[in-house]
Amino acid sequence: MDCIFCKIVNKDINADILFENDFFIVFSDIKPSAEIHKLIVPKRHIDNLLSFNDAEVLEYWSSLVDTINVVSDLLKTKDFKIVVNNGNLQQVKHLHIHFLSGMNVNDKVN
Ligand code: AMP
Ligand code: ZN
Questions:
Q1: Catalytic residue flag (residue 37)
Q2: pLDDT score, position 82
Q3: Which residues place a Cβ less than 5 A from the ion ligand 2?
Q4: I need a labelling partner for 16 at 20 to 30 A (CA). Which of 32, 38, 51, 100 fits?
Q5: Is residue 63 part of a domain?
Q6: 110 has pLDDT over 80
């Protein structure tokens, strides 16, 4: 599948990676909408927020909250906004969670 975020996960193309764990990789958005704009991306290709099956949704949700905690610690801020575009509102059809903080945090994300 020709998916830009799968290529970042597989290190086939470069990204400014903040960290990764078993479930997620976190890197800078290439076209930031705010002072801090990271993307939290599941390592497995998942089309969108509605694509989880019942068996995996709880472990992904739990890992996502853990991951957001790590991002918050690394970036030393608890003042952030989480945005998920879905379906036709997604430019990239691989689920990603926008983590926004700092100046311009209230600007529109796409
Ligand atoms: P969305 O509209 O929610 O699908 O947002 C996709 C986001 O991915 C946009 O904010 C883009 O700037 C970002 N993006 C696209 N390609 C890359 C890339 N190669 N590295 C980092 N961010 C990217
Ligand atoms: Zn993908």
A1: no
A2: 97
A3: 3, 5-6, 45, 94
A4: 51
A5: yes
A6: no
**Does residue 73 sit within a domain?**
yes
Q: Is residue 27, in this structure, part of any structural domain at all?
A: yes
Please give the tally of structural domains in the chain.
1
Instruction: Decide: 91 in ligand 1 pocket, CB within 6 A.
Output: yes
Q: What is the pLDDT of residues 16-30, one digit of tens each?
A: 999 999 999 999 999
Q: List the domain range (segments joined by +) for residue 11.
A: 4-101
Residue 40's alpha-carbon distances to 56, 65, 98, in angstroms, are: 17, 11, 6
Q: CB-based contacts of 13: which residues, under 8 Å, 6+ apart? A: 4, 7
Which candidate, 45, 99, 93, places its Cα nearest to that of 68?
99
pLDDT of residue 92: 98
Residue nearest to atom 13 of ligand 1 (CA): 29
CA of 76 to the centre of ligand 1 (A): 23
Query: Considering the entire predicted model, what is its pTM?
Result: 0.97
